[in-house]
Amino acid sequence: MLGGRFLQTTAVERNRRRLVRQQPVPEAVPLADDPGQNIGRQDIMAGTRFLLDPGQALPVSGVLAAGVADFSLEWIHGEADSVRFEAGSRLPAGAILLSRSSACVVAGERWEDSLLAKLTAPWSGERRDPGLERLLRIYLGSVLVLGLVALAFWGWSGAWPTGVQAMISVFVVSCPCALGVSIPLADDLAASAVERLGVFVRTATLWPRLHRVRRVIFDKTGTLTLERPLLENPNAVTGLDDAAALALARLTRGSLHPAARALLESLGSRGQKLLSAHGDGSPCEYPGLGVCLAGNDGRWSLGRSGWSGDGDAATAAATVSGSDLRKDGDLLASFQFRESLRPGAAAMLRRLEHDGLSLHILSGDHPDKVRQLARALELPEDHAFGGLSPEEKAAHVAILDRHDSLYLGDGANDALAFDAALVTGTPVVDRSLLESKADFYTLGSGLEFLPSLLATAAARMHAVRAAFGFALLYNLITVAFSMAGRMSPLLAGILMPLSSIASIIIVATISRRKFPIHS
């Protein structure tokens, strides 16, 4: 049974790892001064000049050697808005290049010393269930003592054969196979139940730890809110004629900017059909402002509100909540974006509060934004902190945690906080960072699963306790008969598997009734 269980868990873990995509932190980067040669990130030293490709995360902090480029710092402070850097500007480790061309960077540190190395390092600890381990040690020790006591008692009376029979019967009939089968069964049934909610369990010890959770800590951007901004006026996209829609598709295709991705998604199949029929063109990028595309039908531009499509930023508005589509400088459409809560976030928080859980928000976003979100979600402002670095997040979790915290985050800036929490989860599985550390992850866009996940942990504990209660009663009776010399080893060998079957039936019956399974 133990061998079969080991093979099962190994296969499940291997299959789950296949769901995880490759991380955008490059294993090697091209050398800027030696074309065609790459250097492994672990070999990067201070002063190394290398090229960072679009979409990749900067492995070490450094200085932008030339030109200007747009980067996303979402791994650092959780925000996906682009930030413009000019030559000579210092870039933090983890900054993701959004520009369409490579950027030359001069490394300022070794890989081993970078923040990103700490954030992406696998958690070296081992989470166990100390209560169960202690219980098994006491149980096995008690069985051993009782068997020897039975042998000594009958031997002292001169009935050594009866003493040997009693000892063997105690050892056989009290084998912990019933718990050894029923507890993994309860775990598997619970995992299957929450999979219907879009939640996938990674660690075997999640359930007993999840049952102890009394406070839930959320990251903000990408966790309580959606990763991409929400287009407030989708009619501005659907109202475009084919020429303007084609231009918008060309300007946004291949872009890593969150607003551009939202616009291309809004175009949907229409944009893909136009690109297939007419080609995608080669936009020219103006970092921090937008992109332009010159064609036979004119000069198209997509960028910050007020930007007319040239290199002059004087007319561009300071806000990043809007983008303009222009043709030859004339405004055709203005797109407005806003941050959007994940579906069901507010209702989920109310259910958690009703269950007596303490709720907190830790974010790298601006403190004012975090306070506004806390007010919108009706959470105490002293439970919401903004402007936190990854280290500060971890420090706050360490202060809050009493071996009873669940941390839900989505970016590498949450990785250190993960190490400080009792239970961890992530709603993002496309970065291959947190999902390798998380106890569970979810593939859905909403957060409605969280109360049901906690309820499943409670129901699983109820089933385990019922199985334990049965095992305790069974052992008290059978061990007493064995020590009295009234049970043969053969009968003990028959009762032992029957007790396992009874435990399985108890767990399966309670699980069917108690688990909050949704179709």
Molecular structure report:
The longest helix has 35 residues, at 449-483. The protein has helices at 2-17, 74-77, 115-120, 130-156, 160-173, 177-195, 206-210, 220-224, 235-238, 242-252, 258-278, 345-354, 367-376, 390-400, 415-420, 449-483, 489-514; strands spanning 28-30, 38-40, 49-52, 62-64, 68-72, 82-86, 90-91, 96-97, 103-107, 199-201, 215-218, 230-231, 284-286, 290-295, 298-304, 322-327, 330-338, 358-362, 384-385, 405-408, 423-426, 440-442. With 519 residues, the protein is of the alpha+beta class. It has four domains: 28-120, Calcium-transporting ATPase, cytoplasmic transduction domain A (Distorted Sandwich); 130-185 and 454-514, no CATH class; 209-226 and 342-447, HAD superfamily/HAD-like (Rossmann fold); 230-338, Calcium-transporting ATPase, cytoplasmic domain N (3-Layer(aba) Sandwich), CATH 3.40.1110.10. Helix 4 runs antiparallel to helix 5, helix 5 (160-173) runs parallel beside helix 17 (489-514) and helix 16 runs antiparallel to helix 17 (489-514). The strands form five sheets. Strands 10-22-21-20-11-18-19 form a seven-stranded mixed beta sheet, sandwiched between helices. Strands 12-17-16-15-14-13 form a six-stranded antiparallel beta sheet, covered by helices on one side. Strands 3-9-4-7 form a four-stranded antiparallel beta sheet, with no helix packed on it. A hairpin with a 2-residue loop joins strand 16 (322-327) and strand 17 (330-338). The chain has 17 helices and 22 strands.
